[in-house]
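Researcher: Go.
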Amino acid sequence: MSSVAKVRVNAGLLFAVLAALCMVLAVGCASSANGGQPKGTGAMVVVTDDSNGKTVNASVGQTVELILSSNYWTVSGSSAPNVVHQDGATTPLPRPTNCPKIPGLGCVPVRTFFKAVTPGTASITASRTACGEAKPCATDQENFKVTVVVR
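Model: Structure:
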């Protein structure tokens, strides 16, 4: 084999190795770039303020994402952690563009992840006493509850 042929073979081999490495890195980045959300099976169940008082269904292994529109909410967790388990702390989301940077407005949303662990029923609850700076909540705005049925 001539030296030119050896260079071409080595260059082709190097290209193949680099291409394979890029594929591995791309897959790794894609699987870790999920915004810190836990992994589950199937589509995520997203629960928001509009879900208050409602029942949602989830499958075992599925992630339930709770997003409440105000950082005044305190998430109490699950009534049955063996059925629906809180997966990490409640964290603030980025400040919406329509939320002025004025302290005390409470317009920064918060997110909490839960994992559907075993079949059964659990309630996810949250509460708040303020609905704005120095503005107490009306009785019907103080509590949040959604029932999760896991199958």
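Model: The first strand starts at residue 45 and ends at 48.
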